[in-house]
Design brief:
Elements (H helix, E strand, L loop, with lengths): L6 E6 L19 E2 L2 E2 H11 L4 E6 L4 H6 L4 H10 L2 H12 L2 E6 L6 H6 L2 H4 L4 E4 L3 E3 L6 H11 L2 E7 L9 E7 L5 E9 L10 E9 L2 H7 L11 H9 L7 E5 L4 E3 L3 H13 L5 H15 L1
Parallel strand pairs: 1-4, 1-6, 4-5, 8-12
Antiparallel strand pairs: 2-3, 6-11, 7-13, 8-11, 9-10, 10-12
Bound molecules: uridine 5'-triphosphate.
Length: about 300
């Protein structure tokens, strides 16, 4: 079956309270990861998977996001006048990356509520959701695999990652059954951020989803759950339990993922990505070794 998915939805309307005050006047999706805002990595990933139609769900401070994917004439002409074509290319690149649309969430009532705002734009077709908190290494494609599984099984697909038991309370955790494919499981249960020691498995949902449009009618009636927010996980559980909805499957991701969702993981993500870069790695690696040994 040919995948029909063309649209990516990127929720970016959260308050980003863990990063205050940096996120006082800027969405957390605009925080730089080395020298690119987190959201640019995510848009690049969507485009790489063939999704050129990107809908961002925005909240307060959306101007920074819109400006990043728009022309910046003054800066461009200054760089042009200087003959700095390398920097000019960096400024121009995000503008032509994708066909970017925006819709407001209004009140940030939760990820499920943010996804519901995509209904009009998405219509009656499967679509991808990508969260800026997770950066997936382009060398380990995940979204392409999820789109393929969605097409083959006509199901809803989430990305799963094995996490240590000490971290299960930070994620939506899945109960699963094996399928005939090594990296694909069928989801039979889901619980959002279970208390420590009560997780049904160590398979955590990370920020990539390929959803069937039936999710919208479920989200319309999903009551606020954990943290008083309308949780996408709760709607997915209903979908998993409804045989007519095609079920929910998980693709178990075993590649490189950089978590930028909280402060410590964000710092680690920047270091991990920077040490591998040709322009920064050669100087950063020896410095890092020396710095690390000085900590002892
Ligand atoms: P998070 O819970 O990680 O984001 O939501 P947050 O609420 O902004 O973070 P903290 O805890 O206050 O620091 C995951 C994703 O869902 C989006 C966020 O922007 C983030 O990309 N989101 C969350 C929305 O778009 N709307 C919401 O109401 C909630």
């Amino acid at each position: 079956m040919t995948p029909t998915i063309t649209k990516a939805v990127i929720p970016a309307a959260g308050l980003g309270t863990r990063f205050l005050p940096a996120t006082k006047a800027m969405p957390k999706e605009m925080l730089p990861v080395v020298d690119k805002p987190a959201i640019q990595y995510v848009v690049e990933e969507a485009v790489h998977a063939g999704l050129h139609d990107v809908l961002m769900i925005t909240g307060r401070n959306k101007a920074a996001l819109e400006n990043h994917f728009d022309r910046m004439y003054e800066l461009e002409s200054t760089l042009e006048a200087k003959g700095d074509s390398e920097k000019l290319a960096k400024v121009e690149y995000p503008t032509d990356l994708a066909d970017v649309h925006y819709v407001r969430q209004g009140d940030p009532l939760g990820l499920g509520h943010a996804v519901l705002r995509a209904q009009m734009h998405v219509g009656d077709e499967p679509f991808a959701v990508l969260l800026g908190d997770d950066i997936i290494d382009p060398r380990d494609p995940l979204l392409e695999r999820m789109i393929a599984v969605q097409g083959e099984r006509d199901t809803t697909v989430v990305a799963l990652l094995e996490v240590p038991p000490s971290q299960t309370h930070l994620y939506g955790i899945a109960t699963v059954e094996q399928t005939d494919e090594d990296d694909v499981v069928r989801i039979t249960g889901l619980v959002e951020k279970p208390p420590q020691g009560e997780a049904p498995s160590n398979l955590a949902i990370i920020g990539r989803y390929v959803l069937k449009p039936g999710i919208f009618s479920i989200l319309e009636r999903t009551e606020p759950g954990k943290g008083g927010e309308i949780q996408l996980t709760d709607a997915l559980l209903e979908m998993a339990n409804d045989p007519t909805a095609g079920g929910v499957h998980g693709v178990v991701f075993r590649g490189r993922r950089y978590d930028t969702g909280d402060r410590l993981d964000y710092i680690k993500a920047i270091v991990q990505l920077a040490v591998e870069r040709d322009d920064l790695g050669p100087d950063l690696r020896p410095w890092l070794r020396e710095f690390a040994s000085s900590l002892d």
